[in-house]
Amino acid sequence: PICYDAAAIVLFLFMMVFMDTTATIVTGACAERWSFKSFFIYSIFIGGLIYPIFGCWVWGGGWLAQLGYRMGLGHGAVDYAGSGVVHLQGGALALVTAWLIGPRIGKYGKDGKVNPILPHHIPMVQIGTFILAFGWFGFNAGSSLAGGDGRIGIVAVNTMLAGMAATLTGIVYMWTVHGKPDP
Question: How many whole angstroms separate alpha carbon 77 and alpha carbon 59?
């Protein structure tokens, strides 16, 4: 008989969401510029090769996790909640992929000047941002992998404070540069 370890399955699901996020970050940078087939092939490559290798280097006790210890410098790469494995990797892949694809159609005029591409639906962007911010509370707090210790509350509060700091910074920037806070 096959034995199932519920904790291993839950951790797999949790890690799969991390991998999916890495692949999905690129969709924002390449939206409307590549086909679904291209994204599908890219996702298989990232999910099956790139992400697992880099994840093991950092989270699996690999060489990046041990780098500082092995060199007598203390910790190696430390990554809480995917700041490097998920977001840095996704951002780097997005940058490279967007550079390879090139600018959006209509981004530049015939004279080479930049044509601003205005947002299409500001209320929808704001709702999406709210949903994403709400999701971060569960995601970040869940990354402690332990609901019973004190870290979960600290992580949730830090998540809220980070969101407020970003909001206030954006408001101050818009007020200072453009004269009014504008969504």
Answer: 9
